[in-house]
C-alpha cells in the first residue's frame, strides 16, 4: 500500500502600482511513501528444461515466475532447487520465493520437467551360448543392440 502527499506553498505579492497587479507564486512538493502490510503475491508457472551435454540443467526465477506482484515493488525472486541432473528426469517441484522492498515474503510451487534430449546412444549386450549335442559342443554368440530412444 503506498500513498503520495502533495503540499502547496503559495506566496502572494501585491504591486502597489496603478494597475494593481497581483502575482502569486506557487510551488508544490510531492512526498511518496510506501508501506506494505501485506505479503507479495507469488504466482508460478511450470517450465521444461533440457539437460546439457554434461548432464545438468539449471533454471532462473524468471523461468517459473508467472507474474508475481508486490504493492511496493519486488526486491528479489529466488527459486529452489535450481539445478538438476539426469537423476531428476521427469517432473520436479520447485519453490519460487518473492521478497518485496519491505522484506515481506511469499512463495508458490511450480513443476519443472527435466528432459534428456541429448544425442541417442546404443546399449550393446553380448550373449554367449554353449550347448552339448551328440557329444559335441555347439557355440553361438549374439550381439544385441538397443537404441536408447
Task: Kindly describe this structure.
Among the domains are: 2-34, no CATH class; 47-115, Sandwich (Immunoglobulin-like). It is built from one helix and ten strands. Strands 3-8-7-5 form a four-stranded mixed β-sheet. It has a two-stranded antiparallel ribbon with strand order 1-2. A hairpin with a 4-residue loop joins strand 7 and strand 8 (105-115). The chain has 149 residues and is an all-beta fold. The model has no long low-confidence stretch (mean pLDDT 80). It is rod-shaped and about 140 Å long. The protein is 3% helix and 60% strand.
List keywords for this structure.
149 residues; mainly beta; Immunoglobulin-like; two-stranded antiparallel sheet; 1 helix; 10 strands
In short:
The protein is an all-beta fold. The chain has 1 helix and 10 strands; from the N terminus they run ββββαββββββ.
Architecture per CATH nomenclature, i.e. the level-2 architecture of one domain: Sandwich
Q: Give the spatial strand order of the biggest sheet.
A: 3-8-7-5
**Helical content (DSSP H or I, runs of 4+):** under 10%
Uncertain runs? none
CATH overall fold name of one domain: Immunoglobulin-like
Biggest beta sheet attributes: 4 strands, mixed
CATH class of one domain: Mainly Beta
What gross morphology would you assign?
A: rod-shaped
**Strand portion, in percent?**
over 45%
Calculate the terminal CA-CA distance, rounded to whole Å: 54 Å
| Overall mean pLDDT | 80
Main structural class = mainly beta
Write down the Rg. Answer: 35 Å
SS summary, helix count: 1
- DSSP strand count: 10
One letter per element, helices H and strands E, the order comes to EEEEHEEEEEE
What oligomeric state do these chains adopt?
A: single chain
